[in-house]
Amino acid sequence: MITRRRFIKALSALPFVASLPRLAKGQNIPDFSRLKAGYAQRFKKILAAGELPYVDIESSCKSGKLDIDSVAKSMDRLNIGLMALSADIGQKQFDKGVRFDNLSENLLASYPDRFIPVGNGGQPPALTEAPDEFLDAQEEAARKKKIVLFGEYEFRHYPSPRQAKRGEVDRDIHIPIDGPIGHRVFSLSEKMGMPFQIHYEVENELLASLEKMLAQYPKAKVIWCHLAQIRYIERAPGYTPAYIDGLIKRFPNLYFDTAFGDASSVYPPSNQKHARVWADDGSLKGEWRDLIVAHSTRMLSALDLGNDRMHRIGEYDQNHRNFLKRLPGETQHQVAYRSAWSLLFGEEFA
Ligand SMILES: [Zn+2]
């Protein structure tokens, strides 16, 4: 449990907020303008050192297994600006009745200039077995301004490469995006003006229902995670740079994160190289690069760290930077942190 006193103490540890630590009365709620000042100071420090900070908009973990100090240390070592590190509610927590994991509160209590307060991952069992309770709890956190971003909702999710190797199929998920859960999530985003993230594998037959939802909820802020990650190319001939270009033009609140594998990453069940931005020689394919440059304000940095790979943060950072460095200088800064900044705060980073 993080007390108000501890939170203030953590904030006060930062010289620039020492004079004005502030919390909403009676609640452990961060004053967002204070947090933002801390974030900006951290970014400027990294930039002044000639390094590129970025916002990891999408990583997740199990809160009980997280070594917070170790992650924070890695972020400093790797010049990662900010992380939206969301907690996934595990089976044990779920069985105990947990519907909101307040990891963000704990992260901010210790490191208020490194973490974005984010809701929980929308995945089984919470989203599938108790969707209303889970979404009620996420909505309450949003209303109380404990978070500024909802977690990643898995509407269509194949087993991850690691799960596939282990023969696990518990994350072969299909929740119709235009079903009751989808409507609730999209309308929640619209109502709160708060972005959410979707994991939505690319299949031609799934595209129409997503487009329908984007059209019905034009103010919902949607981050479609894993740009150009296609596990089975034969299922997705319609997903091309031209198609994404069209979506971006039609839907002004649609964003993409750039968490995908490196050029050699293979999805074991299909045996295909699923990160389609890469050419065989390890460069970015021209048409994907052009798309990212043309719509850099809709593209977001992300690492997609998870519980089973938190210790590989250095390797994931290196992969992501290998992608960023292939973009023009200005685009690097836009994708790395400017897009996230304007999406989350409604203003340009200055
Ligand atoms: Zn995902």
Q: Could you characterize what this model shows?
A:
With 350 residues, the protein is an alpha/beta fold. The chain has helices at residues 4-12, 32-48, 68-78, 91-95, 103-110, 126-129, 131-143, 161-166, 180-192, 204-216, 241-250, 286-294, 313-324, 329-345, and strands at 55-61, 82-87, 152-157, 173-174, 196-200, 222-224, 254-257, 266-267, 272-273, 299-300. It has a 6-stranded mixed β-sheet with strand order 4-3-5-6-7-10. Strands 1-2 form a two-stranded parallel ribbon. α7 (131-143) packs parallel to α9. The longest helix is centred in the N-terminal third of the chain and has 17 residues, at 32-48. Residues 11-26 have low confidence and may be disordered. The structure holds zinc ion (ZN). Residues 152, 199, 225-226, 304 line the site of zinc ion (ZN).
